Amino acid sequence: MIAQCLGEDIPDFRVPNFLGKGGFPFNIEWLSRQLDSSYGQDINVFEWPFAIDKIVDMMDDVEDYWERGKGARPSKGVLYHNLAVWGGEVADAYNINAGLCKQKIESNKDD
């Protein structure tokens, strides 16, 4: 929309695809559709322990995909026009530095 307002004509406007393994951030609709396909519209009291186990497994699969799997790898040879970051603020451009990033990386746990 900004490019259009500036009069730029970008016929093939490319943005990163975050649809892999249920989507990013975690897609509740995808989760509910997976549960619906496994248990139907109503999960009875005896199915809930299995459904909860399935939910935890799906959340773990999504985390693995985006943190260590295919979703964590950069796309090679692709020029994206939109590189916005969810939750990013203008102040992040001058508040975040290499020292802070190193501290966050070193204190990160896989939980």
Mean of the pLDDT scores? 84
Radius of gyration, in Å, reads 19 Å
User: What is the total domain count?
Assistant: 1
Q: How much helical structure, as a percent, in the residues? A: 40-55%
> Gap between N and C termini, in Å?
38 Å
The major beta sheet can be summarized as:
none
Q: Per DSSP, what share of the residues sits in E-state strands of 2 or more residues?
A: under 5%
Helical element count? 5
* SSE succession: HHHHH
Secondary structure class reads mainly alpha
- Unreliable parts: none
Shape: extended
Q: How many beta-strand elements?
A: 0
Describe this structure in words.
The protein is mostly helical. It has one domain (2-91). It contains 5 helices and no strands. It has helices at 2-5, 28-39, 48-67, 92-95, 98-107. The longest helix is centred in the middle third of the chain and has 20 residues, at 48-67. The protein is extended, with a radius of gyration of 19 Å. The model has no long low-confidence stretch (mean pLDDT 84).
What is the compact description of this entry?
This protein is mainly α. It is built from five helices and no strands.
SSE inventory with pairings:
Elements: H1 2-5, H2 28-39, H3 48-67, H4 92-95, H5 98-107
